[in-house]
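Hello Y.,

Per our agreement to keep a running log of every chain we model this quarter, I'm adding this entry. I've kept the format consistent with earlier entries: sequence first, then predicted structure.
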Amino acid sequence: MTDCLIVGVGGQGTVLTSRLIGIAALKRGFDVRGSETIGMAQRGGSVASHVRIGRDISSPLIPRLGADVILAFELCEAARAVPYLKPDGLMIACDVIVRPAGSSEMFGIDAVSRYLRSSLAHIRLLDGEKIRERCGARGMNVAILGAALSSGSLPLSMEDIEEALDDRFDVARAEANKAALRFGARMIADAGLKSED
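Predicted structure for the entry above:
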């Protein structure tokens, strides 16, 4: 069983990412269960997608301390998800903070990053600006998924997700997403690490 929690804010592609993982896992012959908690997502609120991959899965929701991997598209949502990660689990997070319109700056990237590093045994923080420059804002979720695949934290291959992208999108969008997927995978590979201790 592999339990993957995907967190972000509305518009970041959290639900799409869970669908891609689910499609790929089903094609590989796994059982898949999942659920979303969306809340005020249309107004930039929290979104969490639970994806459970394995055999004979009884519940779609991942319990606290149950996630093998957390993919976080936003730092404050990453901090909120900390209680769900297993002690030996891996968090892959993008170092961006999305502030609702009109909100004041309460937390900075450095402060939240320090909290995450002090709270988790295994975390990879990815450079959000670098991802945006290379993949655009819409490619960030797929780049982080590529990083997860490269880290070995999901029982899927790059080819599995690329096939799911082909099923989901037209040729141009599928190719753009595949480029983002490969870029995220290289971010992990180039660092020479699977996680930061």
